[in-house]
Amino acid sequence: MIVILLGVISNDEKDLINRIFSKMNVKMYNISFNILRSHCDAEEAVAQTFLKITDHIEKISVLPCPQIEPYCVIILKNETMNIIRKRKKTVYVEDVDYFDHNNKSCDTEEEYLKTANKEKLLSCVNRLSDEEKNLIYLRFVNNMSFKHISELLDITEEAAKKRGQRILKKLRLYYEEGENNAQYN
């Protein structure tokens, strides 16, 4: 927000940033918190998102009104993913203590299979186009209805449902391809 204070951007761009902030700040925080499960990280993701919005306000200001919100949500998603990537590189002392002192019996093979299945599913999702990933993200990570997704993407609700069905079918196909390839190795 320093850019706003220094007056580097025009009044129209300031107004647009303020409108986006007023309209989406709480929504962005909730989306980010649902993914990250940390108040501090969610606030960081939202702050970084608004810095990116400020940096790219010229590009955002020329977008049609219905496309501004999805564009900003995608920026938030990317910032949230950056925080998750940073987390993966960090091992917290609490986690080490938990694994060292956990008295429950742990079935290593079962844990491995769960992890392998998640990784396989993630690799299948990574094969999707960005547009398909965004629809999956909105539907399953943000738990949005097809009606809301259709409004964000400026398409009919039926088109959103059909796209969702096609993407899930494609994911099943990718997943099964992976299983079939694993059988022959």
UniProtKB/TrEMBL annotation:
<dbReference type="InterPro" id="IPR013325">
    <property type="entry name" value="RNA_pol_sigma_r2"/>
</dbReference>
<dbReference type="GO" id="GO:0003677">
    <property type="term" value="F:DNA binding"/>
</dbReference>
<comment type="similarity">
    <text>Belongs to the sigma-70 factor family. ECF subfamily.</text>
</comment>
<dbReference type="InterPro" id="IPR013249">
    <property type="entry name" value="RNA_pol_sigma70_r4_t2"/>
</dbReference>
<dbReference type="InterPro" id="IPR039425">
    <property type="entry name" value="RNA_pol_sigma-70-like"/>
</dbReference>
<feature type="domain" description="RNA polymerase sigma factor 70 region 4 type 2">
    <location>
        <begin position="119"/>
        <end position="171"/>
    </location>
</feature>
<dbReference type="Pfam" id="PF08281">
    <property type="entry name" value="Sigma70_r4_2"/>
</dbReference>
<keyword id="KW-0804">Transcription</keyword>
<keyword id="KW-0731">Sigma factor</keyword>
<dbReference type="InterPro" id="IPR013324">
    <property type="entry name" value="RNA_pol_sigma_r3/r4-like"/>
</dbReference>
<dbReference type="InterPro" id="IPR036388">
    <property type="entry name" value="WH-like_DNA-bd_sf"/>
</dbReference>
<dbReference type="GO" id="GO:0006352">
    <property type="term" value="P:DNA-templated transcription initiation"/>
</dbReference>
<keyword id="KW-0805">Transcription regulation</keyword>
<dbReference type="InterPro" id="IPR014284">
    <property type="entry name" value="RNA_pol_sigma-70_dom"/>
</dbReference>
<dbReference type="GO" id="GO:0016987">
    <property type="term" value="F:sigma factor activity"/>
</dbReference>
<keyword id="KW-0238">DNA-binding</keyword>
<protein>
    <submittedName>
        <fullName>Sigma-70 family RNA polymerase sigma factor</fullName>
    </submittedName>
</protein>
